Amino acid sequence: MVLPDGTITTPFDPALVLPHRPPFLFVTSVTSVVPGERATGYWQLGGEEWFFPGHFPGRPTLPGVLMVEALAQLGAAAVLLHARFTGKLPLFGGIDRARFRRQVVPGETLDLEVELSRLSARGGRGVGTASVRGETCAQADLLFVVVDAAAGTP
Which of 31, 66, 95, 152 has a CA 20 to 30 Å removed from the CA of 101? Predict the structure, then answer.
C-alpha cells in the first residue's frame, strides 16, 4: 500500500529492490519506506547463519559490523526506491559514530530503522538504529556514494 505522502507500508522482500543475495542479505523484510527519506524493517536471526558457529563458540553473538551492514542495506532500499536512483547502486562511503550497546543472539529479531538526512545525485548520509524489543543494540551514521549498477542487477 502507498500512502499519499509516498510511504510504502506493505512489507516486502528486500531482494525485490536490493542487489544483495544470501548469504549477504541481512534484511528479512522491509516494513515501511518513504523513498529517499526513511525505512523500517527487520532481520530475523534463526541461529543457522554462517557466522554464529565462529562468533563465538559457546556464546553465539551477531557481529556488530553485520548490524551496521543490515542498516546500510535497509538505507539502500530507501535510496533505490526513489525514482532519481533507478539503475544506481549505493555503496558505503563511511561509517561515523558507530556504537554497540547490546548483544544480539540467535532467535532474536533485529528491528532496523534508517533516516536519510542528506541525499544528492552523488551520495548522501543517514542515521541507523538497530534494536531488539525496543532496546537499542547499535547506532551509526552512514555515508554512501551512488554509482551506476552493474548490468543484470535489480
Answer: 31
- Catalytic site includes residue 55: yes
Instruction: Tell me how many domains the chain contains.
Output: 1
* Mean of per-residue pLDDT scores for the chain: 93
Instruction: Please give the sequence-ordered ranges of beta strands (E in DSSP) within the chain, or none if there are none.
Output: 29-34, 38-44, 88-100, 109-119, 123-132, 135-148
Q: Spot the catalytic one: 12, 55, 105, 136.
A: 55
pLDDT at 54 over 90: yes
Q: Say how far apart CA 29 and CA 122 lie, in whole Å.
A: 27
CA of residue 137 relative to chain centroid, distance: 14
Residues β-bridged to residue 127? 115, 141
Residue 19 included in any domain: yes
Q: Is residue 21 part of a domain?
A: yes
Residue numbers of the domain that contains 40: 14-148
Q: What pTM, to 2 d.p., does this model score? A: 0.93
